[in-house]
Design goal:
Blueprint lengths: L1 H4 L2 H13 L1 H12 L3 H5 L4 H11 L2 H11 L3 H5 L4 H10 L4 H12 L2 H6 L3 H11 L6 H7 L5 H11 L2 H13 L1 H5 L4 H9 L4 H8 L6 H5 L2 H13 L2 H12 L4 H6 L3 H11 L2 H11 L3 H4 L3 H12 L1 H18 L9
Helix pairs in contact: 2-3, 2-5, 5-8, 6-9, 8-11, 13-14, 13-16, 14-17, 16-19, 19-22, 20-23, 22-25, 23-26
């Protein structure tokens, strides 16, 4: 039977026996094939029988298969024939113990698998077949990995529409962690760059209560700027509102990262919130006017006719007070 497995016609004959009389033939074929299962999974013909056997065998036999191939699962997954057999095995995993064994076997090599022509299909099968919780090992491995974050982006590029939705849902669920990571933040930005409101809006809304804190961090501040630019009008208002309600706006204006977020908010917020923001900035502006970012913020305000008028009134009042006998420093 072993030699039949590695022959084109013999392999087809055995598959047909499994299909026509599984109760009678599965135990016989399983007994003969099982000792050679690892080898046959990468055989040009034997892999088809392995796929069929995984489909028709019972739960106990499937557990034995998972256990015997676990130590070689990475090498099998990287093989052009083996990847098909591994995908079929993942598709028919039937209990928690089998799933756990498969995850343990794949966990250490997620990024190499995704980068591989054959191995990436195994990871995609996991994404399709396993639950989000069970797939957490994939997201943990790639989203915050120097090369993995690029791989994750390629996964989104090449995913089917359902796969793409699943990937984006996971990014959204882990957005607060990813946005603060040196590499994970690029994954968040990549989703925003897809120009899909159905993806971007739920993602951006993850940050609406943490805008100020995220604006003061190196990696996340870039993402918050992009969120303000890319958000739908109603969501943008929530982002800017978090800036307006911050009692420590001066700290944001003086911060080397957050000041850029303020500048972006001035550029993209609607007229009502822009005016509110300028009103909040006006009392602080004299203290930061001579700093590089203070000059840029003042320049942005002056480009807005309504805001420039407000600023002019504020400057006139300051000038008037400065020349009054009561406040004169020369008195």
């Amino acid at each position: 039977m072993y030699s039949l497995c590695k022959d084109q016609h013999g392999c087809r004959f055995l598959q047909k026996q499994l299909e026509e009389s599984p109760e009678k033939n599965v135990p016989v074929i399983f007994k003969e094939v099982f000792p050679h299962f690892v080898e046959l999974m990468t055989d040009p013909f034997g892999n088809y029988l392995c796929q069929k056997l995984v489909e028709y065998c019972n739960d106990e036999q499937r557990t034995q298969i998972v256990d015997i191939v676990a130590s070689e699962l990475i090498n099998i997954s990287l093989n052009m024939h083996g990847t098909r057999a591994v995908q079929k095995m993942i598709e028919f995993l039937s209990n928690k113990a089998q799933i756990r064994a498969a995850i343990i076997a794949l966990k250490a090599s997620v990024v190499p698998l995704i980068k591989d022509l054959n191995g990436n299909h195994v990871i995609q099968k996991c994404l399709n077949r396993l639950t989000s919780e069970e797939n957490q090992f994939i997201y943990d491995a790639v989203a915050t990995h120097r090369h993995g974050c690029c791989v994750f982006q390629r996964c989104i590029d090449h995913a089917s529409e359902p796969q793409k939705h699943q990937l984006v849902r996971e990014v959204t669920a882990n957005a607060l962690m990813l946005v603060q990571d040196p590499f994970g933040n690029y994954v968040v930005q990549y989703v925003l760059d897809l120009n899909r409101p159905d993806f971007a809006d739920p993602l951006i809304r993850q940050f609406t209560r943490d805008v100020c804190a995220l604006s003061m961090q190196k990696f996340s501040s870039n993402v918050i700027e992009k969120c303000i630019r890319a958000a739908e009008a109603s969501t943008r208002r929530l982002l800017v509102a978090d800036l307006l309600t911050n009692p420590h706006l001066e700290d944001l204006l003086k911060d080397s990262f957050a000041n850029y977020v303020i500048q972006t908010a001035l550029d993209f917020s609607d007229q009502e919130q822009r005016t509110q923001l300028i009103e909040a900035i006006r009392p602080i502006l004299p203290a930061i006017r001579n700093t590089p970012y203070g000059k840029r913020i003042q320049s942005k305000i002056q480009r807005d006719p309504q805001a420039a008028a407000l600023l002019s009134e504020s400057n006139s009042a300051v000038h008037s007070r400065a020349n009054s006998p009561i406040l004169s420093p020369h008195r």
